[in-house]
Amino acid sequence: MFPLTASLPGARVRILQILGGRGMQQRLWHMGLRPGTELRVIANAGGGPVLVAANGETRFGLGWGMAQRILVEEVREAAAHE
After folding, report:
1. What pLDDT is stored for residue 23 in this prediction?
2. Which domains does the chain possess?
3. Could you give the maximum distance between any two Cα atoms of the chain, in Å?
4. Residue 34, pLDDT score
5. Backbone angles phi, psi at 63, to 5 degrees
6. pLDDT digits 0-9 by tens, 27-68
7. What would you report as the CA-atom Rg of the chain, rounded to the nearest whole angstrom?
8. Which of 10, 16, 36, 67 has a Cα at 20 to 30 A from 24?
9. Looking at 19-80, which runs of residues are DSSP E strands?
């Protein structure tokens, strides 16, 4: 388990836990970002916004602080198709 900010562009990850407060968790929940959601990292320049795609091609730009509090795991390609 590692923060979303540690993910490289092109990586596929699954949200495991969100460490933010109630407001942040609700904001992400309404965006469809919750534990179990799979993401594809589109851009992560380090220190700036992290651009991800969820549920196909819905794209979100997450600020560095918010992305730092989203804990994820890598999704292996074989596991993604099972």
Report:
1. 94
2. 2-80 (2.30.30.90)
3. 35
4. 95
5. -60, 155
6. 999 999 999 999 999 999 888 899 999 987 899 999 999 999
7. 12
8. 10
9. 38-44, 50-54, 58-62, 70-74
Residues 37, 14: contact at Cβ < 8 Å?
Answer: yes
- Confidence at residue 25, expressed as pLDDT on a 0 to 100 scale: 94
Beginning with the edge strand found earlier in the chain, give each strand of the sheet holding 58-62 in spatial order.
2-3, 70-74, 12-18, 38-44, 50-54, 58-62
Token digits of residue 53: 């795609």
CA distances from 35 to 30, 47, 60, 67, 74 (A): 13, 24, 16, 14, 13
Cα–Cα nearest to 54, from 42, 45, 63, 44? 42
Encode burial over 38-64: b for 16+ CB neighbours within 10 A, e otherwise.
bbbbbebeeeeebbbebeeeeebebeb
Residue 60 CA: distances (Å) to CA of 21, 48, 77, 82: 19, 13, 22, 26
